[in-house]
Specification:
The chain has eight helices and seven strands, in the order ααβαβααββαβααββ. By secondary structure, the protein is α/β, with parallel strands linked by helices. The protein has one domain: Vaccinia Virus protein VP39 (Rossmann fold), CATH 3.40.50.150. It has a seven-stranded mixed sheet with strand order 3-2-1-4-5-7-6, sandwiched between helices. β1, α3 and β2 form a beta-alpha-beta unit. It binds S-adenosylmethionine.
Length: 207
Amino acid sequence: MPVEFDGEYWAEHYGGRAAHGGRQPTVHLVTEVGDLAPGRALDAGCGEGADAVWLAARGWRVTAVDISATALGRGREHAERLGAEVVDRIDWVRADLTTWTPPGDAFDLVCSHYVHSTAPTGTLVRRLAASVAPNGTLLVVGHHPSDPHHHGQPPRAAQAQVTAEEMAAGLGPGWDVLVAGTRTRPAGGGPHGPTSRDAVLRARRRP
Ligand SMILES: C[S@@+](CC[C@H](N)C(=O)[O-])C[C@H]1O[C@@H](n2cnc3c(N)ncnc32)[C@H](O)[C@@H]1O
């Protein structure tokens, strides 16, 4: 029976434990965004906040959104451990990305990692893209269907899979696609350990 990736699913996912445990930012964020000048960022589906905290520590002013109050609480605690500057640069927002519209100006960076929400991929990408300022960057990452960690798993894993082409199809006109492809990353276990395969879309909104 396919599982709905709704609020109830994520509440159970985070219940009682640090689900993604790491204090490390996503490897694709570091690669794709590391050389951008800090500005305003939206981390959509921020989970326990490793990416939001990494961005804030580099001077970005971050709006970090997630449907899970537990995950947001852990993100806040993580930020507090790094001090007042990081705390002050992050707004933690509990909201459902399928309906939430950010107030105020658009963002210089909108990033979203592994958010397999209930909305179709194209719909979610379109919503995220609408929040990017002219010249701003959109970075969306998901689990690619060829990811070996999903082979032989139940239908809910298949629901979470996506290709960069599917994500790019959610963009309207007025975008330069800088990266749309499959990337590998270490999946724990050190340099000789297993790797995961991700779909990565990086695009820049034209002025
Ligand atoms: C697999 S986790 C990834 C978290 C984080 N981006 C990371 O890379 O570690 C997916 C996150 O998306 C959030 N999420 C899923 N659907 C959502 C929705 N409709 N609105 C807001 N957050 C959502 C979940 O609560 C969860 O924290």
